[in-house]
Design goal:
The protein is of the alpha/beta class. 25% of the residues lie in helices and 30% in strands. The chain has one domain: 3-Layer(aba) Sandwich (Rossmann fold), CATH 3.40.50.880.
Length: 210
């Protein structure tokens, strides 16, 4: 169970795997609100930015909903604990090779495309379970267990420009940044909501330790 009542808001911009995240919160005894309303989002003391799909479409939706400034206010100025998942992590970055739109620019990182030759025999998207190597001590991955494994589905990956921001790495043909943490800002390329006991541990840490 969660230590104290919290207002957890999942930002809905039309591209998130929100149902699975809500179910994960319910499983660990927490309640989350889903909202695309900036006034509701501005009342949160924890924010989740999910996402599946195309980078430019995601930013277009955020701009249409007039959420960009609200997100930046909460993430940067108010420093509310902020967790981006998959595409949500990517749009926290400066830019992406997937499109032309600038990202939210919350973290000094860029999004790159997996480029493999036919001889590599590696399919894109990278899909399935993969282990991560934790790069620094962090509360979000505390007690996640020995040899943590998470579920990935992505064709693009994040490259942090500051090594200090890298939280964990994974390998699929190349080594890439599987998670970052910069102050109150956390991004994970994998899907903790689909990662069973490892995802449960991550969400519990996020809710109880930040």
């Amino acid at each position: 169970m969660i230590n104290s009542p919290q207002k957890i808001v999942i930002i809905d911009y039309g591209m998130g795997n929100i149902g699975s995240i809500i179910n994960m919160f319910k499983y660990i005894g927490a309640e989350a609100i889903v909202s695309s309303n900036s006034q509701e989002i501005s009342k949160a003391n924890k924010l989740i930015l999910p996402g599946i799909g195309h980078f430019d479409r995601a930013m277009e939706n955020i701009e249409k909903l007039k959420l960009s400034e609200c997100i930046k206010e909460m993430a940067i100025h108010k420093q509310v604990p902020f967790l981006g998942i998959c595409l949500g992590m990517q749009i926290m970055c400066i830019s992406s090779e997937e499109g032309c739109s600038p990202g939210l620019g919350l973290v000094d990182a860029n999004v790159k495309k997996f480029n493999f030759s036919d001889s590599d025999n590696l399919k894109v998207p990278h899909m399935g379970w993969n282990s991560i190597d934790i790069s620094k001590k962090t509360k979000i991955l505390n007690n996640v267990n020995v040899d943590p494994r998470f579920y990935f589905v992505h064709s693009y990956y994040v490259k942090c420009n500051k090594e200090d921001d890298v939280l964990a790495k994974s390998t699929y043909g190349i080594q890439f940044d599987a998670a970052f943490e910069h102050g109150n800002l956390i991004g994970v390329q994998f899907h903790p909501e689909k990662s069973h006991k490892f995802g449960i541990a991550l969400f519990r840490n996020y809710l109880n330790s930040y």
